[in-house]
Amino acid sequence: MREKRKSVKIREKISQKRADVNLGKRGLSESVIMEIKRRLKDEGVLKVRILKSCLKVTGLDRKTLAKRVAEIVNAELVTVRGYTFILKRKPGKEENIR
Question: Does 24 fall in a domain?
Answer without folding.
Answer: yes
